[in-house]
Specification:
Elements: H1 3-17, H2 29-36, H3 40-52, E1 56-58, E2 65-67, H4 69-81, H5 83-99, E3 102-109, E4 112-119, E5 134-136, H6 141-148, H7 152-156, H8 174-187, E6 190-193, E7 200-208, E8 214-223, H9 229-249
Antiparallel strand pairs: 1-2, 3-4, 3-8, 4-5, 6-7, 7-8
Length: 258
């Protein structure tokens, strides 16, 4: 097997793994072939290899595939290896307890935000786990924070086919988004109301590393019925202080102005 063929095989195997998510945790071989565009023989061979490595498992009755135990182990290791997950935990617990809402830490992953850590308040106890989920960055408060601190040239390369609309309130005009991101960078926080999904509002603030670079964002989010614009404004200071607390644990020292 030459290097190019090996690289292609690895890429295809990874693309199959990325099909599995919370909305569709099980896939039949036929569905995998249709969604991936990989021919049936190749897809089956890749799935057999992934199954042998315990990265996928096949249901003995339905024949459907799901993610395997090896990925649970790797995911746990990845979380432990990420300092953001560890240093943010107690801060998120305290924030979720104080607000009753969902507190999360997210990073930028291409044109999406990736949830690294999340703690649910009393209002969301029945909701499922969201760690590992990705959302279009222009639709979330954390995404706007992270985009606002991304170089303009890097932002311009995102969404070559235009900004996707998830709700009627999603920003789809690039000029309007750039204007809002400029405001976010200046004020130090971002809001999102009914932009990711109807009925969901949140406020987010930046997390800095020891070099003063924005490496993540922290947010509080919940039902728009509870998190009205007025209530969100009351939470801004709380969210900013929590984000600075996590930043300090990463070695960030805020400059003191005279």
């Amino acid at each position: 097997m030459n290097d190019n063929h090996g690289t292609q095989a690895v890429g295809r195997a990874l693309s199959l793994l990325m099909l599995f998510d919370d909305e569709k945790p099980e896939w039949s071989l036929r569905e995998i072939v249709q969604a991936s565009g990989i021919n049936r023989t190749t897809a089956y061979r890749l799935l057999r290899a992934l199954e042998a490595a315990h990265m996928v498992a096949q249901d003995s009755l339905s024949g459907a595939y799901r993610l395997g135990s090896a990925l649970i182990v790797l995911g746990a290791r990845a979380q432990r290896a990420n300092p953001l997950q560890a240093v943010s935990q107690s801060v998120l617990v305290a924030l979720a307890h104080k607000t009753g809402e969902m507190a999360s830490v997210e990073i930028l992953d291409g044109d999406k935000t990736l949830i690294l850590n999340e703690v649910k308040g009393d209002q969301q106890r029945r909701m499922g786990v969201s760690v590992g989920n990705r959302w279009p960055a222009h639709t979330t408060s954390t995404g706007k924070v992270l985009l606002a601190h991304l170089p303009a040239q890097a932002r311009a390369a995102l969404w070559p086919d235009g900004l996707p609309a998830l709700t009627p309130h999603t920003i789809t005009d690039r000029a309007a988004l750039e204007q809002q991101l400029e405001q976010v960078a200046a004020q130090g926080y971002a809001e999102a109301h009914n932009e990711l999904e109807m009925g969901f509002s949140e406020v987010g603030a930046p997390i800095y590393d020891h070099e003063g670079q924005v490496v993540a964002a922290l947010s509080v989010g919940g039902s728009s019925v509870r998190l009205t614009r007025e209530h969100v404004h009351e939470l801004i200071g709380l969210v900013q202080r929590a984000a600075l607390d996590v930043s300090a644990r990463l070695g960030y020292q805020r400059a003191v102005t005279s």
